[in-house]
Amino acid sequence: MKWEDINAHAKQWVKEAGERIRLSFDTTLNIQTKTNANDLVTNIDKEIEQFFIKKIREVYPEHKIMGEEGFGDELRSLDGIVWLIDPIDGTMNFIHQQRNFAISLGVYENGIGKIGLIYDVVHDELYHAIRGKGAYINEKPIAPVKETTVKESIIALNATWVMENHRIDHNLMIPLVKDVRGTRSYGTAALEMVFVATGRVDAYLSMRLSPWDFAAGTVIVEELGGVVTNLRGEKLDFLSKDSLFAANPSLHQSILKDYLKDGKF
């Protein structure tokens, strides 16, 4: 398989999709809800996913596609080559802020991540990696992740998980939030994962994400020596929703051992 060729096509399509999104900024969005009033989707989300599917089907008709908006294939396995696409990760930010969102695209072969691309459309920053060949911002290499301790770390964590909720015992999170140097929340899993990859934050924890949210970011973080698991420290399931924990190796081990070991996720 010519991964360089697939990567070149993917990068070209991501850039084209980004330009389409930028051109939509002055248009009126058709906004709908999905599972609840805060789970939003726009006509642009749908159009961008369909754009990717059309391109992939034309060039790689034998490949399978998993997309957030449901225009791809119904998959029961990751056999073969699968594209996992989130056309706009951070739709609420896209609607309200016109920033802090990204295109996320991962290409997997038999369940193994081969290519990851995350495009920060507004800042024109394309984070990309081919397994075994390094990771880049545009064409600048990204340095391997640095080890940090809990007390000198900034972690990305939604404030919801430090309040009483039905997904996690918030009492597990409170000591961690108290012990770290600071917390941040950006509202987009794709960008929060590349922030781990670039050292802008040291860890990212989320309670429930879908495969298209973390497929591309996993390739990039792991290529730079980071660790990506669920909150139990287990390998991620790329066919269903799961929790997510991405960090540099020492911090990942410390948080699992000292803060999450008694949790039920």
Please tag this protein with its features.
single chain; 265 residues; alpha+beta; seven-stranded mixed sheet; five-stranded mixed sheet; 7 helices; 14 strands; globular
Describe the structure.
- The termini are far apart.
- Helix 5 packs parallel to helix 6 (211-223).
- The chain contains 7 helices and 14 strands.
- The longest helix has 21 residues, at 3-23.
- It has helices at 3-23, 43-59, 91-96, 170-179, 189-198, 211-223, 249-260; strands at 31-33, 40-42, 64-67, 81-89, 102-109, 112-120, 125-130, 135-137, 140-141, 154-157, 182-184, 203-209, 227-229, 242-247.
- The protein is α+β, with helices and mostly antiparallel strands.
- The strands form 3 sheets. A 7-stranded mixed sheet has the order 3-4-5-6-7-8-9, sandwiched between helices.
- The radius of gyration is 18 Å and the shape is globular.
Concise description?
It is built from 7 helices and 14 strands.
**Percentage of residues assigned to helices:** 25-40%
Cross-sheet strand order for the largest sheet:
3-4-5-6-7-8-9
Shape: globular
The first-to-last residue Cα distance is 38 Å
